[in-house]
Amino acid sequence: xxxxxxxxxxxxxxxxxxxxxxxxxxxxxxxxxxxxxxxxxxxxxxxxxxxxxxxxxxxxxxxxxxxxxxxxxxxxxxxxxxxxxxxxxxxxxxxxxxxxxxxxxxxxxxxxxxxxxxxxxxxxxxxxxxxxxxxxxxxxxxxxxxxxxxxxxxxxxxxxxx
Amino acid sequence: xxxxxxxxxxxxxxxxxxxxxxxxxxxxxxxxxxxxxxxxxxxxxxxxxxxxxxxxxxxxxxxxxxxxxxxxxxxxxxxxxxxxxxxxxxxxxxxxxxxxxxxxxxxxxxxxxxxxxxxxxxxxxxxxxxxxxxxxxxxxxxxxxxxxxxxxxxxxxxxxxxxxxxx
Lengths: 162, 167
What we know:
Chain A is α+β, with helices and mostly antiparallel strands. Chain A has one domain (33-148): Alpha-Beta Plaits (2-Layer Sandwich), CATH 3.30.70.20. Chain A has five helices and five strands. Chain A has helices spanning 2-13, 49-53, 83-87, 133-138, 145-148; strands at residues 37-39, 59-65, 68-74, 93-95, 111-117. A three-stranded antiparallel beta sheet of chain A has the order 2-3-5. In chain A, β2 and β3 (68-74) form a beta hairpin. The longest helix of chain A has 12 residues, at 2-13. Chain A starts with a helix and ends in a 14-residue tail after the last helix. The mean pLDDT of chain A is 81. By secondary structure, chain B is α/β, with parallel strands linked by helices. Chain B is built from five helices and seven strands. Chain B has a five-stranded parallel beta sheet. Chain B has a two-stranded antiparallel sheet with strand order 6-7. In chain B, α2 (26-34) packs across α5 (125-136). The chains are: A alpha+beta, B alpha/beta. At the A-B interface, β5 of A face α3, α4, β5, α5 and β6 of B.
């Protein structure tokens, strides 16, 4: 019996240390891992294709004036599917391998916002949005309700911490 | 000496109670994964407990369904002070893809005061470990909000000051 226990001890010693050193040493994800979707603001043309395909509908589009379009991405609810990067005609969105997104200061840290300078089309003045107002409502991307009401409004009262 | 050793080793061991408030089980699997010997959150003193009355930390997974709200409030009150709440996964952080469903409250922080947020769908075990490390002060947070603006006459975008979306 003692020999079998000894055998077991020797067997369990053989693999050595298996635990990752992760928080103290970096451990990069391998393969096709999709992390934080980074937007190259210089390349963005403000077409809104990403907003139209986003399953979490987290990209809000607001036209401040004729020449400025504000695109707010509330990445707090991003599911990292990478569809925005797929459809972007300018390849402005890249799925990085950055996964260390934890934060202690609230949802705000996950907000990424850019103001795109929109050139005015000489012929129609509005190439970059759907042709008529009905189409604009149908496009899930062209909504700005959450910007206007300041994030989500909830009928629930959160418990206050002491 | 033994007392000193205990005082030194116990103040930072967080006992966690894991509650699923409408999650798809993806985050729950990753939480269990973090406790395996490969990732080994127990070296930081993290221990999964079966009762909220033994816990210091509440791990919340899921977008918080309407039915579970009273139960979640009671659960929070059952955890003895001082307590922390960690929201794990995109659902608990901001509601995920369910944020505006009729039966979803939309994020744990609409109900509870959340201290740490770990986004991801589901978050990698390393991401959860990073969140634990941020909570224990072993690592710094690496994410910041981005506000940029394109200008007409120069190629680079410049940062702008805007007011916060969340009051």
